[in-house]
Amino acid sequence: MLLIIFFALLIACPSEGILAMSSANYAIPTDSIEGGGGDTSASADYKLNDSIGQAATGSASSASFEAQQGYRATTTNSVLSVAFVDNNGTPIASPMVAFSDISAGSTTSGQLSTASSRLRVINTRTVAPWSMTIAATAGPSANWNDGTDTMSFNRPGSALTVDPAAGTVAAVSAPCTTTGLTLEPAATFNQGVVDSITLLTAGAGADTGCAWDMTGAALTQTVPTNQPAGSYSLSMTITVS
Predict the structure, then answer these.
(1) What is the distance between the alpha carbons of residues 129 and 106, in angstroms, rounded to a whole number?
(2) What's CA 62's distance to the chain center, in Å?
(3) Per-residue pLDDT of the chain (241 residues; tens, 9 = 90+)
(4) N or C, which terminus of the chain has less Cβ within 10 Å?
(5) Which CB contacts under 8 angstroms, 24+ apart, belong to 223-227?
(6) In angstroms, rounded to a whole number, what is the distance separating the alpha carbons of residues 129 and 240?
(7) Other C-beta atoms within 10 Å of 83: how many?
(8) Backbone dihedral region for residue 195 (phi beyond 0: left; psi -120 to 50: alpha; all else: beta)
(9) CA-based angle 39:45:51, to the nearest 5?
(10) For residues 107-142, b (16+ Cβ closer than 10 Å) or e, as one string?
């Protein structure tokens, strides 16, 4: 009998926002190219004459980037992130998925996320498209490991399959919707061929300034017939970008 424990290590993608220009001695948190002047910023060593006019304001974006235009425009809430949360929306520090009562030579199943351990994506950017993927934290050479024995997760005959389409995705609150969101079809890890599996994507028509919960994605793992009994673990990374 095998007890395989699947640990999901979550790494959220840094938010995309405005980057300040700086060095060890000075910083320009916002800048513009305009006529006028008279607004002066200074320190002991530097002086900057700022512009007083502006040609364009508001947000401009492409499929992957956004810019907040205007005089000293700033964005403090531009976030794209993913986290495991409980049914109250509280982040889970050490999310875990367990496969239990597994016999050598069998295929076992589990769920990547449940009602009490949900994958929550938050996008407060003005850019709609994003993609959420899962991969082994240590890369395609990683293995299930019980401290003594190992087992492959991505080779023929002993492979982990992820089926996002078996689950559901729902907006956390109205008026946000799931328009433009796609739960991707099942895929099986295959070393050097399929090293990362896409779970959920948002197209150009998806909402922004919203949050969504994904639950129920199915997992199956094939165990070789000669695999020694043990308690195995494998760290995975989920990324949204």
Answers:
(1) 39
(2) 20
(3) 333 334 433 323 333 333 444 454 454 555 555 555 555 566 665 656 555 555 555 555 554 455 555 555 555 568 999 999 999 999 998 888 888 767 888 888 889 999 999 999 999 999 999 999 999 999 999 999 888 999 999 999 889 999 999 999 999 999 999 999 999 999 999 999 999 999 999 999 999 999 999 999 999 999 898 888 888 899 999 999 9
(4) N
(5) 223/2, 223/4, 223/102, 223/103, 223/104, 223/105, 223/106, 223/107, 223/108, 223/151, 223/158, 224/104, 224/105, 224/151, 224/157, 224/158, 225/104, 225/105, 226/104, 227/2, 227/104, 227/105, 227/149, 227/151
(6) 10
(7) 19
(8) alpha
(9) 20
(10) ebebbbbbeebbbbbbbbbbbbbbbbbbbbeeebeb
Structure-token pair, residue 92:
């889970």
- Phi and psi at 100, nearest 5°, equal -125, 160
The whole-angstrom separation of Cα 82 and Cα 12 is 5
Distance CA 24, CA 88 (A): 43
Q: Cα 59 to chain center, whole Å?
A: 24
* Whole-angstrom distance, CA of residue 15 vs CA of residue 37: 33
CB atoms within 10 A of CB 85: 20
- Whether the CB-CB separation of 87 and 115 falls below 8 Å is answered with yes
